Predict the structure.
Amino acid sequence: MKILKITLTLFILLCNFVPVYAAKHTENPDYRLEYLNLKWWENYEDPILNDYLVKAYQNNQDLKIATINVKQAQQVAKESLAQELPHLGIAGNYFRDFHSSDVRFGEVLITNYNQSNFVLPLTMTYELDLWGENRLKTKSINKQVDMIKQDERATYISLTSTLASTYYNLIKLDKLLKNQTELVKLQKEVVAMTGKKYKNGLAPVTELMQEKQLLTNFEETLEVYNDHRDIIERQMVVLLGDRTNNTVTHTDYADIKLVSIPDNIAAEVIQFRPDMAKTELYIQKTGFDVKAARRDFLPKILIYGQVGFNAYQLSNIFTGNTFKSAAGFAPSLDLFSGGAKMARFRYNKLELEKAQQMYEKTILTSLQEVNNSLGIAHTNRKNYKSSLERYNLEKDKYNLSTRKLEIGSQSILDNIRDRERVLVTEKDEVSNKIDYIIATINVYKAIGGKDYNNIKELL
């Protein structure tokens, strides 16, 4: 009982020197759903896309790796915090002095001296953090954890944007494939009809050759579309993270919805970008590192205590007269370290200066990416409107051509060619429409995964 009381007293004494910190905030286990931002993707009114985003959230390996990186960083932070707490351990020891020459203790002479010694102490140590150096180191590591969380958020924004862009490219290619297949079919009819005209002497051979050449161009384009379609489908499987899923479905092209974009976006939106948040955290981290390096020049005090047993025979080690205890403190000050501490201090100061330059550069690149993505979206929107207008005009012309065919004022061959012009114009309309949708996704990505239609509410 006496030993227990002394041990408990010493432990409480050491713990009183440990600063008390607020309880760590419990992280919401579903915080990654905020990174997924399904509410934003509902603007596209595509339930299949939303399902794919959820599947990627559940299965994608890059997202899982990013989350594991965060968990690893949190364990490093816990390890750093542990360095601020007292250390308690047992380190048993046994040693023996073998037969030797006479040993004298003052006036006492021991001939042929030999002795065994059994030591079983419970040791507690604590570095008294007078200057807050250890606390600063832990704060620095906590900022590192926050930086890695921003990397995780950036991974979510990038991957979901890539997944959505790939999904719409798949829709585009399937529509272009359908369009191109019809073009090839129509051109084969044109070649057959032109061949008959040539046999009957109604068309020169050059016309037949031109139609055949156009057919080969259409067929080559069809093969290119097929190849690109397979590549994008395989990319979708990788993004979904499910190797058992070899087929990807999607909404029909006619059912996709357009998302509007604002004419201008305030420059303040860059504060939502993960890279901006990360560089701000890096400045804070290096600031803590500089302070810790400066305080490393100050003296350190180690408080220690020890309770245990010290016996000269193993059978007597737990008897009352073998109990041993000790307590004390050990101040220390490095008078010369070869300039290592000064070098570390100067290195951290330079790192802080570098972090500030990185912050300024990130501001510039962020503004550039936001403006570029918004400018491209505006251009694609104009191109889509122009191509849609041309497509509607070609359809109107084809409808007129069809009515002429019905009344016998136009040939079947000319009607087929008019239909081909509609399909060629439709290809531009399809490409520009999907390019515009992908541009809106890139704007979302550029401003840090926020709904740019509600920026005023966020600022």
